[in-house]
TrEMBL record:
Enzyme class (EC, first level): hydrolase
Basic and acidic residues: compositionally biased ranges: 8-24
Native organism: Streptomyces zaomyceticus
Stretches that traverse the bilayer: none
Family classification: Belongs to the LOG family.
Protein's name according to its UniProt entry: Cytokinin riboside 5'-monophosphate phosphoribohydrolase
């Protein structure tokens, strides 16, 4: 339906909070577009509809995770092999975090994420996986007890931070680096407080730490104090002690 026959197109149109004038006035009303049974289905792919999907993801995530006990998010590569020392370290970290009184949150995938979930499950703790819709994603690993799948990375990253008291970061690739620097930025800008970040694997992280110190800090792009925003260790007990100490758990 459009403008009734015989009526001129209005010069001004109010659609909720949106004001349209002149050539931007649309035919019909919002109710008409809602109630019409025929028409193009492309509207389900428009930005306003995506806002509703984004909102629903936040609601579902908040609802699923609101009653979690104190938790630590553990990150690491999906490509970590089950027979590797890194995988075993992930299992030990997941187990030790549960024994220290934490739930364990991961990205829910294979590799290092699966290892941490496995350790948490073996220790009879709460094992959480926050998955992401990807064309090559394998789905949530079998050691996840509470799982939420997200369409949008930024919603998922909000959940990692909102429901965790700290991060333990195992060797990983671009996704792991994204999550690491997101956390570092939030702490540096004081968007979150008392948020420990532990990098596990000194040899793996050495190049990154050297670059931050010798290029980023030395070039005046960050301060010396920013290097204190994270800790680096090879010891599982020390990693857990660091997050426990800083969170007061």
């Amino acid at each position: 339906m459009g403008i009734p026959e015989g009526m001129a197109k209005p010069e001004e149109q109010r659609l909720g909070p949106v004001l349209r004038r002149r050539d931007q006035v649309q035919p019909g009303t919002t109710d008409q577009r809602l109630l019409d049974t025929e028409g193009d289905s492309e509207w389900v792919h428009t930005d306003p509809w995506r806002v509703m999907r984004i909102q629903s993801e936040f609601v579902e995530g908040f609802g699923a995770l609101a009653e979690l006990p104190s938790a630590i998010s553990v990150f690491g590569s999906a490509r970590t092999k089950p027979d590797s020392p890194e995988y075993e370290a992930g299992v030990r970290i997941g187990r030790a975090l549960v024994e220290a009184g934490f739930a364990v949150i991961t990205g829910g995938g294979p590799g290092a994420m699966e290892a941490a979930n496995k350790g948490a499950r073996e220790a009879k703790g709460v094992s959480v996986g926050l998955g992401i819709e990807l064309p090559f994603e394998q789905g949530l690993n079998p050691h996840v007890d509470i799982g939420v799948n997200f369409r949008y990375f930024f919603v998922r990253k909000t959940m990692f931070v909102k429901y965790a008291k700290g991060f333990v970061v195992l060797p990983g690739g671009l996704g792991t680096l994204d999550e690491l620097f997101e956390a570092l930025t939030l702490v540096q800008t004081r968007k979150v407080t008392r948020f420990p970040i532990v990098l596990f694997g000194t040899e793996y992280w050495k190049g990154l730490v050297d670059w931050l110190r010798d290029s980023v800090v030395a070039g005046g792009k960050a301060s010396e104090h920013d290097l204190l925003l994270f800790h680096v260790t090879d010891d599982v007990e020390e990693a857990v002690a660091l997050v426990t100490k800083e969170t007061g758990n």
